[in-house]
């Protein structure tokens, strides 16, 4: 693991952090009508949200360069009786593409978990890539009896108790800050003008994958309705293996094609 320095973000870091977030997520969006990533705008808005936790707004430096960032807000799990249980959520978690796969993201998370525990928080709940976050201890939130605000569960909706038993007896629906749901493409496009012009990214069509799969596996992916490879990245290997027609051969094809297009995927 590279030797990095982790510290609190300062106002002088804001533009650099927004720029690195932009670089991290430029190829990461998957919204149906999305033309540009909006995570750098989200970072700007989170800093002024009432749920923002400044003590957990952290950057990673390598040789004086800001190469990673994590930002937290407070959320809550509301049980059937209406009782609220405070938890944390983070995101975006950003690492400059050229420094990814060096353990920087993991180090930022682990450091922030220690700080969150020290501050008295009990757990972290996130939406994220289900083949990545379990490496630092996350488990499907449904295993704890916690669902999304809509009452759903999935491999991408995960929870991490910050100490043994932290989520014992806590079940219900998770609610994050409303800022996560209030971003618009118009605002993101306007905000992006603050940064150097960058060629718009067009997500890779799912057809590139479908053309390489055997008929049964192809039908399985078609039935899921995915349009781009980015959506596949958000699904766990376990989830895809559970689909009729997806066997070991299909998984290897998916893994190889994702890697060819710059996406880490699979356990």
Can I get a quick summary?
The chain has helices at 14-25, 39-46, 104-118, 185-191, 207-210, 215-224, 229-233, 237-241, 248-260, and strands spanning 5-8, 58-62, 65-78, 84-95, 123-127, 139-140, 146-147, 157-161, 172-175.
Characterization of this structure:
With 267 residues, this protein is of the alpha+beta class. It folds into 2 domains: 5-181, Aminopeptidase (3-Layer(aba) Sandwich), CATH 3.40.630.30; 207-260. Helix content is 30%, strand content 20%. The chain has helices spanning 14-25, 39-46, 104-118, 185-191, 207-210, 215-224, 229-233, 237-241, 248-260; strands spanning 5-8, 58-62, 65-78, 84-95, 123-127, 139-140, 146-147, 157-161, 172-175. The strands form 2 sheets. Strands 1, 2, 3, 4, 7 and 9 form a 6-stranded mixed beta sheet that branches. Strands 5-8-6 form a 3-stranded antiparallel beta sheet, covered by helices on one side. A hairpin with a 2-residue loop joins strand 2 and strand 3 (65-78). It is globular and about 55 Å long. The two termini are 20 Å apart. The model has no long low-confidence stretch (mean pLDDT 94).
């Amino acid at each position: 693991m590279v030797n990095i320095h982790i510290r609190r973000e300062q106002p002088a870091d804001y533009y650099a952090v927004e720029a690195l977030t932009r670089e991290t997520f430029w190829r990461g969006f998957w919204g149906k009508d999305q033309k540009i990533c909006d995570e750098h705008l989200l970072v700007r808005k989170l800093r002024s949200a009432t749920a923002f936790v400044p003590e957990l707004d952290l950057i990673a430096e390598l040789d004086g360069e800001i190469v990673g960032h994590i930002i937290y807000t407070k959320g809550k799990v509301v049980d059937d009786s209406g009782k609220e249980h405070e938890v944390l959520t983070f995101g975006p978690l950003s690492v400059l593409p050229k420094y990814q796969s060096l353990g920087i993201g993991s180090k930022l998370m682990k450091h922030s978990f220690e700080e969150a525990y020290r501050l008295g928080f009990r757990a972290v709940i996130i939406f994220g890539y289900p083949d990545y976050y379990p490496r630092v201890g996350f488990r499907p939130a449904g295993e704890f009896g916690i669902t999304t605000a809509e009452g759903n569960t999935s491999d991408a909706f995960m929870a991490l108790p910050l100490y043994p038993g932290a989520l014992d007896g806590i079940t219900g629906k998770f609610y994050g800050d409303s800022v996560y749901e209030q971003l618009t493409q118009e605002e993101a496009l306007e905000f992006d003008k603050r940064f150097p012009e960058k060629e718009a990214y067009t997500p890779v069509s799912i057809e590139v994958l479908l053309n390489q799969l055997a008929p049964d596996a192809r039908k399985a992916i078609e039935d899921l309705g995915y349009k781009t490879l980015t959506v596949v990245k958000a699904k766990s290997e376990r989830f895809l293996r559970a689909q009729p027609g997806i066997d070991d051969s299909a998984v290897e094809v998916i893994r190889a094609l994702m890697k060819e297009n710059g996406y880490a995927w699979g356990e």
